[in-house]
Design a protein that fits this description.
Keywords: Signal. The chain is mainly alpha-helical. It has 6 helices and 3 strands.
Length: 219
């Protein structure tokens, strides 16, 4: 099966993954698994118990294979863009240096100066256009991959929550909106194992989902 690559940090808007209780009949790995439900906690006097859990986002970014591939792909594209842009700047600088040298050697006549100025302006505009257009296109493409990956993790999060009888699953990261979480609710290791176990299934159709997001923008 074809592998996909790229990155990114998922927005906090994807942090809450609500899931109903029950077993996941669609998961192929469920047959021989021993499932330990998360204990339901009382939220207040007279309230109904709710099972909550969280995972560390940074751990997903470093330990989920597919996430790392997507991040790696985006970084590689960003690096290539930067290299192309730097090459264009170096070429322009070489052009300027050559013109300066010719002027110092009196190799450029007065009537050539206007033409040289126009050429220099065209080269500058070409670089600016490349930086703006390619940069914007790359940013847009990165967002599509991030959104598609977020959707895949949300899909897996719902399945995982169903298996574990979790009512509320969210992620935690430093600097986020959550100040403190008791480690008793931490299911990071289990969720990462689940993600990596289902990696091929999550990768299936990923490129099609990215293309669908691109088509939505075009429409």
């Amino acid at each position: 099966m074809r592998r996909f690559f790229s990155i990114a940090i998922l927005g906090l808007s994807a942090s809450l993954l609500a899931a109903s209780c029950g077993d996941d009949n669609s998961s192929k790995a469920a047959d021989n698994e021993v499932v330990t439900p998360v204990e339901k906690k009382q939220m207040g006097e007279g309230s109904t118990g709710i099972a909550m859990a969280f995972y560390y986002q940074d751990s997903i970014a470093t330990q989920f294979g597919f996430y790392k591939e997507v991040d790696s792909m985006i970084r590689a594209k960003e690096l290539n863009f930067q290299k192309e842009l730097e090459a264009k700047y170096r070429a322009y600088q070489a052009y300027e240096a050559d013109i300066q040298k010719k002027m110092q050697n009196n190799e450029i006549t007065g009537y050539q100066i206007e033409e040289i100025q126009q050429t220099a302006m065209q080269k500058q505009q070409s670089i600016q256009q490349f930086e703006q257009q390619r940069g914007a296109a790359l940013q847009n493409e990165s967002m599509k991959y991030q959104t598609a990956l977020m959707n895949k993790i949300a899909e897996a999060g719902k399945e995982f929550s169903n298996k574990k009888e979790i009512d509320l699953l969210f992620f935690y990261q430093k600097g986020g909106q959550i100040t403190f979480i008791n480690n008793a609710y931490d299911v990071t290791d289990e969720f990462i194992k689940y993600l990596n176990k289902r990696e091929e299934d999550l990768m299936s159709g990923f490129e099609d989902e990215v293309d669908a997001l691109e088509a939505e923008d075009l429409n």
